[in-house]
Write a structure and sequence with these properties.
Largest sheet of chain A: 7 strands, mixed
Strand content of chain A: 15-25%
Number of helices of chain B: 12
Strand order of the largest sheet of chain B: 1-2
CATH class of chain B: Mainly Alpha
Strand content of chain B: under 5%
Distance between the termini of chain A: 44 Å
Largest interface: A-B, 38 and 43 residues
Strand order of the largest sheet of chain A: 8-7-9-10-11-15-16
Number of domains of chain B: 1
Structural class of chain B: mainly alpha
Distance between the termini of chain B: 48 Å
CATH topology of chain B: ABC transporter involved in vitamin B12 uptake, BtuC
Helix content of chain A: 25-40%
Structural class of chain A: alpha/beta
Number of domains of chain A: 2
Number of helices of chain A: 14
Number of strands of chain B: 2
Shape of chain B: globular
Oligomer: heterodimer
Shape of chain A: globular
Radius of gyration of chain A: 21 Å
CATH architecture of chain B: Orthogonal Bundle
Radius of gyration of chain B: 19 Å
Helix content of chain B: over 70%
Largest sheet of chain B: 2 strands, antiparallel
CATH topology of the largest domain in chain A: Rossmann fold
């Protein structure tokens, strides 16, 4: 179709948003939609992207993987979105990812996860295990001791994250005191608590997911189990430290790439701006920040590509290795090999009264694993997810 | 004494699993086991009880009274629901499934919209106690006691009171009961209400130990249905042995191989029991094998 360039310039860029606004995960993901909305309003107020307005097409995926598939088809085929921001749980991402590949779409996954997705159709702005665990676990082992126990949700996220924990513990000269995988939806933890007490670990890594499993903390505190805990999912997503009565989460250490307690001027301004638009937001979590910065990241990619929204044009810019954006956490950049994001990593400690302090901050932690293991999207697109035990074929 | 520690540890696991199954199933044993209404909104009665209990406790009521409020609120909701919906569907079991499922969705999503995605909880009371090398939450023993007390109360209510006789008569032979002057509509309402109130009490009792979210009912519903199916039609003779049997399987498998094995063991046990005893354990005890 021959549309004159001036008419095309007036057409908005369509950004599809597939996030859970109801169901089990809604608590952690409503803020992601708000983050995208705030960034979009700011960008449109400042003239849009390369002269075009940004238009959001938002669907509520209801914490249901089949909805992701249904809406991903709809947003790509019927709405013809230029880019889609989608997904919280890894199960949902793996549900929609084949559809993005099949329909030749372009998606951003703005969430921390177990890592390893090497797919040219995807940009990942969330943190991955080498960023969260290679900082957290050595720090905790030095401080508390070398025997580690892991409890993890029994699906791809928990299994792969636990594998990372196992490897990093071994590399740092520690040992596993035990490991248990817990089906999603389990809410009664007496036996798990007893097994941990018997194993007497120095550190407990909790990779529990969903509202049912989060009952663990209250039950462990009531049974007087007080092993120092480490996690990559708690606090930074479902703000358990705000929702649970203290001190059930006391003595927990979390590595996160940003949470609303971060104590600097840039973060305070960001929180103030957020509350001006959404005064009753219960918490601004790391995925909300990831979603916010992802809109600006997309803007910078499109502008560098001279206004094109074609995936291949944008990836050519990413391949140059200097697509970066200024976020509340600081400057973050896309790694061209894996299309994952570098991050500032904050170590958040939950106090007895559930206040947050930051004993340590690591800046510019790169998502190095995929690239080092052999994923190079600049050269080849395998459309696959890898793990330390099944790395890319050499 | 490592032998004693291990034995006590297992006994505690067993009691804990048993209490959870019995409390999940108590209300449903009346509504589904006895009345035959497949109530998929049972989890929402539990959620309602938990929410009311926590709200009352935060307003300053002592926890036992708050649980009572939760039970009464769920009971009232149950009676209302029976009058408006369930009553018209007693002879249409498949329609009941659709109706109660719809009510369950409306209740949990309505709660999400009105009260938000989560409610701050109250802490688990009573602290912990060290026995042998391990420490236990004292409140878990209270839950075991509550399960036993509720079973006993059900036995007394349905086997030793006039209301119990009328309720059983109404459900077994409604027309004969009516001919003898029983207000069967009232009995149906009250019986359904008692089932809902027990679900509310379960929610209230577990509220201090769990994360309060609108979808929390789903965490009870599987255990509730399997316990009732294994138990069969009699409220006391079904729920008590089913709770003991499934609790034993679950505690053994969980202690041995972890939570996943516990869940698998539980479901395999259920399949085995209903294959051998289609009318559940109480069917066997009351000699009405099909």
């Amino acid at each position: 179709m021959a549309i004159p360039p001036t008419a095309r310039a007036a057409e908005p860029i369509k950004l599809g948003v597939l996030e859970d606004q109801s169901g089990d995960f809604a608590l952690a993901t409503i803020g992601k939609v708000h983050g995208i909305q705030i960034a979009t309003d700011e960008i449109n107020a400042a003239g849009g992207i390369a002269g075009r307005k940004l238009e959001l097409v938002i669907y509520d995926t209801q914490s249901d993987n089949t909805r992701y598939q249904e809406f991903m088809r709809r947003v790509l085929q019927r709405d013809k979105a230029d880019v889609v921001f989608a997904g919280f749980s890894s199960a949902s991402r793996e549900a929609y990812r084949p559809i993005v590949d099949q329909l030749n779409g372009f998606a951003f996954y703005n969430n921390q996860y177990e890592g390893g997705v090497c797919d040219a159709h995807m940009m990942v702005t969330g943190a991955v295990p080498e960023q969260q665990f290679s900082t957290l676990i050595p720090w905790m082992m030095e401080k508390f001791g070398k025997r580690v126990y892991t409890i993890a949700a029994d699906y791809n996220f928990g299994q792969i994250s636990a594998e990372w924990v196992r490897n990093i513990v071994k590399e740092n000269g520690g040992s596993m005191a035990g490991e248990e995988f817990i089906p999603l939806g389990v809410s009664q933890f007496s036996s798990t608590i007893q097994n941990i007490q018997k194993a007497k670990p120095d550190i407990l890594i909790t990779l529990l997911v969903g509202t049912a499993q989060s009952s663990y903390y209250e039950q462990a505190a009531a049974a007087d189990l007080h092993v120092p805990m480490g996690s990559s999912v708690n606090v930074g997503q479902a703000y358990e430290h705000k929702r649970f009565k203290p001190p059930s989460l006391a003595n927990m250490y979390v590595t996160t790439n940003w949470i609303e307690e971060v104590d600097d001027q840039k973060s305070k301004d960001f929180v103030a701006k957020w509350h001006a638009k959404y005064p009753s937001e219960p918490y601004i979590n790391q995925e909300a920040e990831n979603s916010y910065l992802a809109v600006y990241l997309y803007k910078s990619m499109v502008e560098r590509a001279g206004g094109s929204t074609k995936r291949d044009d944008l990836r050519k810019e990413v391949a140059k290795g200097d697509v970066c954006v200024e976020a509340p956490e600081g400057k973050v950049c896309l790694d061209p090999k894996s299309q994952h994001m570098s991050h500032t990593i904050y170590l958040a400690k939950v106090g007895d009264d559930h206040s947050i302090s930051f004993p340590k901050t690591w800046s510019d932690i790169k998502p190095y694993w995929l690239g080092a293991a052999g994923c190079d999207l600049v050269k080849k697109n395998p459309n696959a997810q890898y793990t330390p035990s099944s790395p890319p074929p050499k | 004494m490592p032998g004693f520690d291990a034995a006590f540890g297992f006994l505690y696991q067993f009691g804990d699993a048993c209490a959870f199954l019995v409390l999940c199933a108590a209300g449903l044993a009346i509504i589904f086991g006895m009345m035959g209404v497949i109530n998929l909104a049972h989890g929402e009665f539990i959620m309602c009880g938990a929410y009311v209990t926590v709200t009352a406790a935060k307003a300053g009521l002592p926890l036992p009274l708050a649980v009572l409020c939760g039970a009464l609120a769920s009971g009232a909701a149950g009676i209302l629901l029976e009058r408006l919906v369930i009553r018209h569907l007693y002879h249409r079991p498949l329609d009941t499934i659709v109706a109660t499922w719809g009510i369950s969705l409306i209740a949990s999503q309505g709660t999400l919209i009105v009260l938000g995605p989560s409610l701050t909880d109250v802490s688990t009371p009573l602290g912990s106690v060290a026995i042998g090398g391990l420490s236990y939450s004292v409140y878990r023993f209270v839950l075991m006691g509550a399960a036993a007390a509720i079973l006993l109360a059900l036995y007394v209510l349905f086997n030793r009171t006039r209301f119990g006789v009328l309720a059983r008569a109404t459900i077994q032979l409604p027309h004969m009961a009516e001919a003898l002057g029983v207000d069967t509509r009232l009995i149906y309402s009250l019986t359904f209400g008692i089932g809902a109130a027990l679900a509310g009490a379960t929610g209230g009792l577990y509220a201090p130990t769990m994360t309060l979210v609108p979808t929390m009912g789903a965490q009870f519903i599987m255990e509730a249905f399997v316990t009732v199916v294994v138990g069969g039609g009699d409220v006391f003779l079904g729920t008590a042995p089913a709770g003991v049997l499934l609790g034993l399987v679950k505690a053994f498998m969980t202690t041995w191989q972890g939570q996943l094995a516990g869940q698998i063991g539980l479901l395999v046990a259920v399949i085995a029991v209903i294959r051998v005893l289609p009318r559940g354990v109480s069917g066997l005890l009351l000699r009405e094998r099909a």
